[in-house]
Amino acid sequence: MSLLNPYIYIWFFVFSIPWENSVTLPGFGASSIIGAAAFIMSMLYLAFTRKTLHSAPVFYMIVLFVILILLSNIWTLDVEKTWSRSRQFIQLALMLWLIYQQMDTHDRINRLLFAYVLGAYVSLASLFWGYIRGTSEYSEYGRFSAEGFNPNDIALVLSIAIPMSWYLSFQFKNTFSVLICKFFLPIAVFAIVLTGSRGSFLAMLISLLIVPLYTNTQQSKKLFSIVSVILVMGFLIVNFTPTMSFDRIMSIKNEVEGGNLTHRSDIWKSGLIIFKNNLMLGVGSGAFPVAIRPYYGKEIVAHNTFLSVLFELGIVGFVLFILIIRRTISNSFRLELYEKIFCLITISVWFVGVQGLSWEYNKTTWIILIVPICYMNCKTRK
Asked: Which residue has better confidence, 115 or 221?
């Protein structure tokens, strides 16, 4: 494959997303730098080849969403943050469109998903390195994370990669690639337990549904795969999980019954006060931390993707965001059985995980939302 082919750069862009915070330059993450190269090469490729461009209804919704974010610079409570978020979403929307242009076959989409899984392995290596050396920023709390990541964020990245890896293990014929995908699951589950992230642990439980639901559609090799994965997963968790990490995971019930959710409920109550005063258009994209300071006593994100969109972009932005997700889910239901199972489980994992995280601007969120659209594009082109 020629180095002038933009697909190579898009592949490396997706590969870098799971570890983008681990390697940074001032003001830039790894994926931003690679993304810039992918954008330049893609635009040159489109300009010189005059390739027929394609679009989908979801992109019109994304454009409207980005326009609203840009307009929120007018009424925002934090001009600097909103302008930064505006630039971020413009770049992200353009990358999604370019990805859509390149993902014209199932094989290309699957290889892009494989790039994400391989990128997740990089973060796994970083997390385990901190665990072995005891140098993780969060180790004193019995929690471990990849370099540059909050434990909750990296745990959700790994949870999302689990259904990808299992799905791909049945798509690839190369034995080495299959093994890489198969054994990602037990290693990732162990790593998620090490992070001590309760929300992402619940998301991970949803991700494990890919094993019985997807494997049940396969007619061979399923028993050996499942038994092997369970044995490896059980061995790692039983023998190497620190007591503090395990105890934190097991405190989920107490957190839910107590109604505190690590102070998130207090943040949401304060956010609802702000929302009542900014119903239709919100306080501006990225401006919630500044808006909540008088009510909560300090700047903090909403810790819930849907509430974050509602508070920052009001009812208008929330409706647009829901319409984008609805379109993605609608496309998922129209796919072939294998792709349908994979896409719906992955979206479900994301949905559960972002109940405690502000991921509306996260690249992984939008990659997940665009994959079913790409699969649907391949189906309609047949």
From this structure: 115
